[in-house]
Prior knowledge:
By secondary structure, the chain is α/β, with parallel strands linked by helices.
Amino acid sequence: MRIALLGGTGALGGGLALRWGRDSQHDLVIGSRDPERAREAAGTYEAILDGQGVERSIPGFENGMAAERGDVVVLAVSSDHLSEVLGDVGPRLPSDAIVVTPAVDMESGENRMTYAPPTQGSVAALVREEIPARNPVVGAFHTLPADRLQSLEESLDMHTLVFGDDEAAIERVRSLAGEINGLETLLAGPLENAPAVESLTPLLLTLGQQNNTPGLGLKLTD
Ligand SMILES: NC(=O)c1ccc[n+]([C@@H]2O[C@H](COP(=O)([O-])OP(=O)(O)OC[C@H]3O[C@@H](n4cnc5c(N)ncnc54)[C@H](OP(=O)(O)O)[C@@H]3O)[C@@H](O)[C@H]2O)c1
């Protein structure tokens, strides 16, 4: 399978690229607004993985070209600009590509981060509105701290919540997420549940700020 990481030059996309690069056999493609920046980031990831004894060839493209190559397309783009990116990328998605959104809209207030969803009610709903109906949308990775993903020496030992309306697409994304060492998935219901899941991210960031414990993630036990 080929995973296209749009905005893969950023913190979350880079973390996912490194984890999947090390822990899975899937092909990875890095997307950016600027193809040169995508190639540079991909080269950096290749070098880090090489240092881990993993030989990888990771190409970089402009976001639309990366999306055209994805079986699974992860929107690791800053949420403020997602709409703009989707306007260009949406029509270029392969007809059966699964689109994964980890994106959260937040505002920083005094001593806290707050959830500030778009008018559609959640970022996932915005994505659903802006891409072709044939492409399933799955939410995942919202509560994973990018810096911990990027520290390959660190064991994750975390859960990520996965939601959506297409069962086959959800299972595919769960399976991909589960290939990352130390990451487990929990089903979190339909796309309608997006506000509940997305709003956990600003809460975790606030907890981190208030308690001087940055990099908090989610680990649920029974
Ligand atoms: N960071 C985390 O710990 C974390 C955790 C969970 C979820 N998330 C979510 O994951 C997404 C990515 O987070 P991040 O921290 O990786 O974000 P980021 O580093 O701030 O940005 C990711 C990428 O977005 C692209 N971008 C920036 N400005 C843009 C613009 N004006 N138009 C189009 N693209 C633009 C950039 O790629 P190019 O400049 O190369 O185009 C950048 O590398 C966000 O939606 C965030 O809510 C983040």
